[in-house]
Amino acid sequence: MVAETVLRPADFIAPLFVVDGQAAPEEINSMPGVFRLSIRDLVKECRALRKVGVLAVALFPKLGSQLKDDEGTHALSEDTLVLRAVRAVKKALPELTVITDVALDPYTSHGHDGVLTPARDDVENDRSVALLAQMAVLQARAGVDLVAPSDMMDGRVGAIRRALDAAGFSGTGIMAYSAKFNSAYYGPFREAVGSAQAAGTRLLSKATYQLNPANRREALTEVLLDDAEGADILMVKPAGLYLDIIRDVREVTRKPVAAYQISGEYAQIHAAARLGWLDLDRCRHESILAIKRAGADLILTYFAKPMAVALR
Ligand code: PBG
Hints:
Structural class: alpha/beta
CATH class: Alpha Beta
CATH superfamily: Aldolase class I
Number of strands: 10
Helix content: 25-40%
Distance between the termini: 18 Å
Number of helices: 10
Bound molecules: ligand PBG
Low-confidence stretches: none
Shape: globular
Strand content: 15-25%
Strand order of the largest sheet: 1-4-5-6-7-8-9-10
CATH architecture: Alpha-Beta Barrel
């Protein structure tokens, strides 16, 4: 009766990994219970999520290395894996909200979210933004409800908004990864989508474009820019280590705030539970409750399905 924060299945957005081919679901090593799915199995999983009350999914493709190059060229072809996946899911479940990532990391051999400068010492912001805007239009054409720029280039939300409007997709929304920190906790995700290799040699540091974990005011600066550029939902990522940022964002915008409980947050709860050191169900619930209490309206979490099932 006096609980101030209540979780419901509609709070969750389920991130899902998709691969080409017909292979059986393949579990990701560091993410127990999370699988790379063929398009057919992806549609099945979406149906199961919808049944337990989850209203939205975020799709991430894992591509073979033969489709990757320095420029992320394949990202702009009309028939990429993720576009086919979107069409299949929207056809089977038109009412499910489908979200796709706008970033080049699944497509670049170096694993960065944009293309590199000639000196290869940083991403080239504006050239990356132009590619990302084209990518967003392709995703809108395939039928996504929200595009989600996770790349952290400067000015990309405005550029994507203009490109979508110019192509006739004024109804396609933008969920912006606005305060995305340069976190060590993305490791399991990079394993899942195969972006971690960094061409085998270079260290994959996204520190020049993702936020410094030390910076709270800078995070708000990024959020306010995305808000002004026309983002429809503003996201903080990671979630559990950045509850102060979630609260700050909740207080500076009237738009919905999303938070992404990322792969490393998921992995550490599972790892401790496997050792018998923590109770999986209770830690799962408490970690997500804290994110909502901090001010998140929507929570991207790999626990979406088990949480939704537990709440029924
Ligand atoms: C990259 C992207 C990342 C995640 C979502 N999109 C990782 C990164 O920035 O390298 C991380 C999600 C997670 O760790 O669960 N565009």
